[in-house]
Amino acid sequence: MELSDTYLDLENKLKDGKITPMEFVEEYNRRMDEEEKKHDHEFRPHEHI
Question: pTM here?
Fold first, then answer.
């Protein structure tokens, strides 16, 4: 599932009344945190030549 599909699925649940607006926000934030962790890496200073 692509990232955009993940959020479209969440949006559709909200539109269909399957989740509340607060649940939408909480789940959206959780998914954003998960995505951030996937791309989290230690910053290493470097020089540009």
Answer: 0.69
- Quote the CA–CA distance of 26 and 21 in Å, as a whole number: 9
DSSP 6-40: HHHHHHHHHHTTSS-HHHHHHHHHHHHHHHHHHT-
- CA separation for the pair 23, 1 (Å, rounded): 21
**Residue 42: helix, strand or coil by DSSP?**
coil
At 4-30, the pLDDT tens digits run: 888 999 999 999 999 999 999 999 999
Distance between CA atoms of 42 and 47, rounded to whole angstroms? 16
